[in-house]
Design a protein that fits this description.
By secondary structure, the protein is α/β, with parallel strands linked by helices. It is 24% helix and 26% strand. The relative contact order is 0.16. The model has no long low-confidence stretch (mean pLDDT 93).
Length: 341
């Protein structure tokens, strides 16, 4: 039967935070799949800081979402109907069909079939075994190159990527220090996830507390935020430290207003300490995902990696829910549950 598809379409370029007024809620009817097509129903939608970038008409690593297009986003879905030999009803698939309840994919384009392992929750494929986990894995191990005994600091450590980075660093024998935006998050990081120390960046004297938590300096800084945490970290970097630059969420809502974007203080320390600073985008690592999934999956099965998800019910709530990321209201991976499997 034809499927009713609900979707959020970008209506205007945002100014500051994303709001419901930046989008239109559109309802269309999708036909049954023609030869070579696959109809997919969305189970989970990933909400990420980069949603704010994609909605802006600015120079970025992918083309901006165009006005009138469905808002981009990572998705996990189930095949409802198929006229393609490689896909069967009931198959789990991942893709980027965005803020929509369904998609009709021609030739299976943009779909990646997921071999669902019994006992693995579906949300794991959108977090630790998805792009989030791969970002943590390759950013830390390929660029950060942590060695046993080194000190690793991670900003936004209670977020989806940050908490996985820190646990990988612990597995590699490092001292791990995270920053987060509340005392409750900091307690969770230390008591439940095994961090050596966690600092509330909103209330702490960052220079003093970071120095106390990193008595041997900082060898790896996994950068998710920019802002004052980065300023404090740069004072403490060791010779030949490494900084994987994953995100700069402190600046995203400034959009095209370059006057509001301030670079880091203490930038000279990158030169003085011969620091490697390298930005990366996880799409560059797509061909190596099986490598990361295999290792993270093993650690997950052994109980050496834990993960949190923050699940919002209903696609209709996506425009408000995405701002949980910028308010620091989420712990772990922020998802919208769009339907039941």
């Amino acid at each position: 039967m034809p499927a009713t598809c609900n979707a959020w379409v970008l209506k205007r370029r945002p100014e500051g935070r994303l709001t419901r007024d930046d989008f239109d809620w559109q309802t269309t009817t999708l036909p049954d799949p023609a030869d070579g097509q696959v109809l997919v129903r969305t189970l989970y939608l990933s909400l990420d800081p980069t949603n704010r970038i994609w909605a802006s008409d600015m120079d970025q690593y992918m083309p901006p979402v165009q006005l009138g297009e469905v808002m981009r986003g990572g998705t996990l879905g189930v095949v409802e109907a198929s006229a393609h030999p490689d896909y069967q009803p009931g198959d789990l698939v991942q893709g980027m069909w965005g803020w929509a309840s369904h998609t009709l994919a021609a030739g299976g384009a943009g779909l990646n079939r997921i071999p669902h392992t019994e006992g693995v929750p579906l949300d794991a494929y959108m977090s630790v075994l998805g792009a989030t986990g791969m970002t943590a894995y390759f950013g830390l191990l390929d660029i950060g190159r942590p060695e046993a005994g080194e000190t690793v600091v991670v900003s936004a450590a209670a977020g989806a990527v940050g908490q996985i980075v820190c646990q990988i660093a612990r597995i590699k024998g490092c001292r791990v220090v995270g920053t987060a935006g509340s005392d409750a998050k900091c307690r969770h990081l230390v008591d439940d996830l095994g961090f050596d120390a966690a600092i509330n960046y909103k209330t702490a004297d960052l220079d003093r507390e970071l120095a106390a938590a990193c008595p041997k300096g900082i060898d790896v800084y996994f950068e998710n935020t920019g802002g004052p945490v980065t300023d404090a970290v740069l004072k403490l970097v060791n010779q030949n430290a490494r900084i994987p630059l994953c995100g700069l969420i402190a600046h995203y809502n400034e959009g095209d207003n370059s006057e509001g974007v301030r670079g880091p203080n203490n930038y000279q320390m990158i030169l003085m300490r011969r620091v490697l600073l390298k930005g990366f985008i996880i799409i560059d690592y797509f061909p190596r995902f099986p490598e990361g999934i295999a290792e993270l999956g093993g650690w997950l099965a052994e109980g050496r990696i834990k993960y949190d998800t923050d699940v919002v019910e209903g696609l209709e709530n996506a425009p408000e829910a995405v701002n949980r990321l910028f308010d620091g209201a989420n712990t772990g991976k922020l998802l919208v549950k769009c339907s039941e499997k």
